[in-house]
Amino acid sequence: MQTLSYRLRGQRRTGYGFTLIELLVVVALTGIFLRMAMPGFVAAIDSNHRNTISNRLMEDLALARHQAIAISSSMALCGNAQASVNTCLNSKVWSGGWYVYAGSSSTISSADAVLRVPQPLPTGWVVDAHLSSPGTYANLDARSSSDKFGHFTIYRSGYSTTAGCVALSSDARARAYLADSRTGVVSANNDPC
Fold it and tell me: pLDDT-derived band of residue 92, with 50, 70 and 90 as boundaries?
């Protein structure tokens, strides 16, 4: 027993830790795996943003429909890129969020009539309203109908080939679905919904 311990004490100790080459190989492999996984992470984040915006719009359309029936009066939604409570912008782009208010036109009569104020969308995200004329606001009346039917297109500007779509029917019901663009990136001129 003494001979074995004598030999071990006399030898130089190696094998503790990593060599520089081993460390560089691990770093390189980690970089390769991250590069391979990155498109999946970006797609998951985009899908999450698209679903969040779509759900928020669906909830606000349902709230307006419910309130219109409950108070026997018209409710409306209009997009607004600025924080003006008195009027809605004459725009089909609702990227600055939207108001939910009592009324039947694109003009908000008073601050008391506002149920929801715009919440800004994540940077780079767009909501285009494609509603019947004039298309700048959605009107839901007490009979559970809407003369501003059509759809909303939700996408990340310059990147998305998939759009979130929220369809508003003439009976003031909203339905959400996804649509893929077959002709490139989704834009105001390339609407897959």
Answer: confident
| Chain segment 113-169, per-residue pLDDT in tens | 888 888 888 889 999 988 887 678 888 888 888 888 889 999 998 888 889 999 998
Name all domains of the chain by residue range, CATH numbers in brackets.
42-180 (3.55.40.10)
Is residue 63 within 8 Å of residue 87, measured between CB atoms? Answer: no
What is the DSSP secondary structure assignment for residue 111, as one 8-state letter? G
Q: Cβ distance 141 to 65 under 8 Å?
A: no
CA distance 120 to 100: 14
Helix (H, G, I), strand (E, B) or coil at 99: strand
Q: How many helices (H) and strands (E) does the chain have?
A: 2, 8
Continuous H helices in 11-128: 20-71
Q: What are the residue ranges of helices labelled H in 117-188?
A: none
What is the pTM for the complete model shown?
0.77
Tokens in use for 50? 């698209």
